[in-house]
């Protein structure tokens, strides 16, 4: 049995987009819908007072979805972990559309579970 995890580094986003919780909520909702994920409860958000950067975390039946934004650097880090294999979505397209990303670096990891 195996899961899959995506680590996405997102660059070139407008500062105001990375400070806007509603924009990030829409991003999460879009990812959940496109990947057919099942959220458990509500997403938790924190906005940092100095930079306005946001951290969001949503516990999923499949594992979790998390983002950390750095408006002062026009960048964000997104992590999606699913405990079972599933296909990737069009990351560049969705992050360009929702966050205005100019560059997206994607790392996909197969997480293999095995007994010691």
Structure summary, number of beta strands: 6
Shape: globular
SSE pattern: EHHEEEEHE
- Mean of residue pLDDT? 95
Main sheet: which strands, in order across? 2-3-4-5-1-6
Number of domains: 1
Distance between the termini: 14 Å
Beta-strand content estimate: 35-45%
What top-tier CATH class fits best?
A: Alpha Beta
CATH topology: S-adenosylmethionine decarboxylase
Helical stretch tally: 3
Helix content: 10-25%
Query: Helix/strand-derived class?
Result: alpha+beta
**Largest sheet geometry:** 6 strands, antiparallel
CATH architecture: 4-Layer Sandwich
Walkthrough of the structure:
There is one protein chain. The chain has 116 residues and is α+β, with helices and mostly antiparallel strands. It has a single domain, classed as 4-Layer Sandwich (S-adenosylmethionine decarboxylase). It is 24% helix and 40% strand. It has three helices and six strands. It has helices at 15-18, 21-35, 91-99; strands spanning 2-11, 44-47, 54-59, 63-70, 75-82, 103-112. A six-stranded antiparallel β-sheet has the order 2-3-4-5-1-6, covered by helices on one side. Strand 4 and strand 5 form a beta hairpin. Helix 2 packs antiparallel against helix 3 (91-99). The radius of gyration is 14 Å and the shape is globular. The model has no long low-confidence stretch (mean pLDDT 95).
């Amino acid at each position: 049995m195996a899961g899959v995890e995506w680590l996405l580094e997102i660059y070139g986003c407008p500062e105001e987009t990375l400070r806007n919780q509603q924009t990030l909520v829409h991003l999460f909702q879009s990812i959940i819908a496109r990947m057919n994920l099942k959220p458990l409860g509500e997403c938790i958000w924190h906005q940092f007072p100095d930079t306005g950067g946001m951290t969001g975390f949503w516990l999923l039946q499949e594992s979790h979805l998390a983002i950390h934004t750095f408006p002062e650097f026009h960048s964000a880090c997104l992590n999606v972990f699913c405990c079972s294999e599933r296909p990737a979505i069009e990351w560049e397209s969705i992050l360009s559309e929702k966050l205005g990303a100019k560059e997206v670096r994607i790392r996909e990891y197969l997480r293999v579970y095995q007994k010691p």
